Each structure stands twice: as C-alpha cells, then as structure tokens.
Amino acid sequence: MEFKKFKDKYIVRLDKNEEIVDTLKRFCQEQKITLGWVSGIGAVNRATVGLFDASSKQYYARELTGDMEISSLTGNISSMNGEVYLHLHICLSNIENKTYGGHLTAAYISATGELVVGVIDGSVEREFNPQVGLNTFKF
Ligand code: FE
Fold it and tell me: Could you list the residue range(s) of the whole structural domain that residue 69 is in?
C-alpha cells in the first residue's frame, strides 16, 4: 500500500494480496484518522460480504471467489471505544458482469485497489444499540 495526501484527502493504492479492511484500518490508525469516508474501485479475487438480517439481528456472510471488479466500495470511518471503526459496503462484478454486494468483512486485492479517503476534522463514536443489534452512531 502506498498513498499520497492532498490537504484533507488521501489517494491510496492497495496492492496484490492485501486485505482491504485490515489494511485500511491500519492506515487510519497510523494517520490518526478518526472520522471520514471511503470511496474505491479495483479488483479482488476473494471476498466475504454479508447481509444484516434486521429481524434476527444476525449477519449472514457469503464467501465469493474468482476474479471480480470492485464496481463500488463505499463506507465511513468512525470510532468505537477509542478504536478505528470501519463500516464498508462493496459491490463486486464477475466475468458475467453479475454483481454481488453487501457489508464488507474482508476482500483480497488481485490486481490493484484505488481508494480516496476523505478526512473530516472531528470524531463520532459508536455504541451498541440493542434495539437494532448494531453499533450505531452516538451523538
Ligand atoms: Fe453494513
């Protein structure tokens, strides 16, 4: 991974075999980013994407393999208990141009990843919301 900073935005390149969520989390820790947004494209060959079932309050994850384009990677950076908290969603398209998408747990770069990270000066914490079953923004 390499990046260049332009005022409050970073252009980030992820490299082959890097895992997106882990790499991005480490990047935010090192750059001391507590609040922001992420937008990206690129290519992966393995990913775990999920759906949060609002009635059972459980995540259902699916493992996807094979060459896939990141049609869209989007999400936000906040914090929980003083730690960087990433919430990322991804849309992936395969050789047939069929897309699968959902909550991103992990994805491995097969060629390159091109992200824009925007920094917001401030911080927003999350806390577990038992009614929803998710860690939601706390204001
Ligand atoms: Fe989600």
Answer: 2-138
* Tens digit of each residue's pLDDT (9 = 90 or more) over 73-101: 999 999 999 999 999 999 999 999 999 99
Q: What's the CA-to-centroid distance between 29 and ligand 1, angstroms? A: 21
Report which residue type is found at 94.
Answer: N
Q: Which CATH number fits the domain that encloses residue 107?
A: 3.30.1330.80
Relative to beta strand 134-138, strand 58-80 is: unpaired
Tokens of 43: 């290519």
Q: Residue 68 and residue 109: Cα distance in Å, rounded? A: 10
Task: State the amino acid at position 79 in one-letter form.
Answer: S
Q: Output the CA 59–ligand 1 centroid distance in Å.
A: 9
With a threshold of 0.85, does the pTM exceed it? yes
Structural domain count, the chain: 1
Residues in the chain: 139
pLDDT one-digit tens code per residue, 16-48:
999 999 999 999 999 999 999 999 999 999 999
